[in-house]
Write a structure and sequence with these properties.
By secondary structure, this protein is an alpha+beta fold. The protein contains 1 helix and 7 strands. It starts with a helix and ends in a 10-residue tail after the last strand.
Length: about 120
Amino acid sequence: MSKRLYVSMIAVAALSVAAVSDAQAASCAKFGKVRSQSSNAPVTVTFVNKSGEYRSVMWVDFKGNLVNYANLNPGQRYQIDTYVTHPWVFTDGPGNCVEMFLPRKGVARFNITRKSTGAGGD
């Protein structure tokens, strides 16, 4: 393998990691302000609960309502076929938003990592 090809592969890998990190930085600041849009760009995403806490996986429908899709204990995962314009919310046991995810092409896995403060609206 040439050095140029190797460097190109490293650069592509770094961009992929950046995309996942950016997605993980999503907070609940947009909670209540987003809703699903068109269903034109399909993606498959696996949500992995690495928070160490229980999480519900909630889809934000076209009216902005939360629809429960899965309940994950620590370490569990859930794979879903979704769309890039469909937001997902992860809640704690009482139903407080802890983290959000907005799907993107090229991001096939999202690690749920945020800890709940118990105050809601994390």
